[in-house]
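Re: folding output
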Amino acid sequence: MANIAGGQPPPPRQWSNIVHFLEGYRPKVEHLIVNWSKPTVGRYKCNVDGASKGNLGESSIAFCVRNHNGDLMYAEATTIGVNHGITTEAKAMVEGLKYCIEK
């Protein structure tokens, strides 16, 4: 049987055992604080993101470009059909880079 997140064994299938399992279940919670920093004077920063509903599902990409003051210079978002999550992230990077090269 496959493990659930955190390497724990799968939940039991009988109702009484499921209740017992859930009473003792403590998911591992992690967090990471991420700060956005402005680019240096005369430079621009392009942030990208891709998302999909499932790891093969309807996907969309987006990117935005900001100047050294943090002002939004350009933003774009679009749907790209059915893709895997990693493909979606890569396509977002490609589109952001294409825009930056053209401009």
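--- second protein (sequence, then structure) ---
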Amino acid sequence: MCPMPDSGSKMAEEPDYSIFENKTGLAEDMKFLASMPELCDVTFLVGATREPVCAVKAVLAARSRKFHRMLYQTEESPQRKKDPPTRENKIRLFLKRSSEPLLNLQNTAHQRSGFTQQLAPIQEPQTNEHHTLIIEEFEPDVFRQLIEYIHTGCVTLQPRTLLGVMVAADQYGLAQLKHACIGFIQCCVTVDTVCALLASANRYMQYKLTKVISKKILEFVDEHGNEVLNLGSFTLLPQDVILLILRRDELRADEFTKFQAVLMWSKKHCDNNPHQDLKDVISIFIQYIQFHKIPATVLMQEVNPLGLVPPEIIMNALAYQADPTSVDPTKLSPQGMRRRGRSMSVQSSLDPYGSYTTWSTSNDSDEGSDQKQHSGSN
């Protein structure tokens, strides 16, 4: 005798045709809604250029509690909270509340007697006002992707705007989008994308979440130093990020590659700023390159003919290679080398121990003591 089929398991395997979902179509329609300014009721002026980004307030409020507070919960000013209600305001409020039941009774009486058409319509308060808000902390492309995700539930993550979208999602309480960005960073850090991520991290370094992510990005730069320094996109990085990379002890890159990278960056910078001299621009980076580790033939054939490196640095490097005991080691240290008459300290915004960039110049007051200390070796 054959066993009877289990009706419960059969029903569980069959799809439920009573439920129809069209999430793709909904996302496309909502994207169209956000792209039509005449259908939106709030405009954000984003970034330094005040680029307009339109949205629907109800959608923003439903998806983000912060947007709900920003658009619908108007708080009273502190001055109004402190000032007690006056006697006239109390009387007006009492008369208003006392007249509401009477007005309702009158309306009911008119409705019963058939004269409702003679009553003037009650004016409702306007709730469809168009809001205009300024958003300065995010770039237009980043904020536009955030608005697209809020309306449609999907967004295409890109390395150039990835960290900005992650920070924006964290600021506006979109936890799922934030975790998606963090997960995407783990797999998208490559030689081709690392410079875009570094530039984005430098833009949003005031946020704690970015500082944690930037540490992993810098570790990738350390492991692939020569490859990163040879990238054409390396010239697009800010100056303080270049300095941070050069002074890292963990950076696995030869010194001549460092020199070629800063030379490429300095030429690009001078092309964009014709009034600046190439020698002055590259001098900022020279103190972070250990020229004594560059072969002598390369120094004399590739570096010295450019006339960008001071002759004393070339001579010290060559002398050290001939006899390491003939040159004071402190003159070869990138951090120990001093420019004549001034000292320069650099703190990058990408540094985990600092959140800003500082350029400071001071008189070299201890120059005399340094000369006395090294006079014997010289």
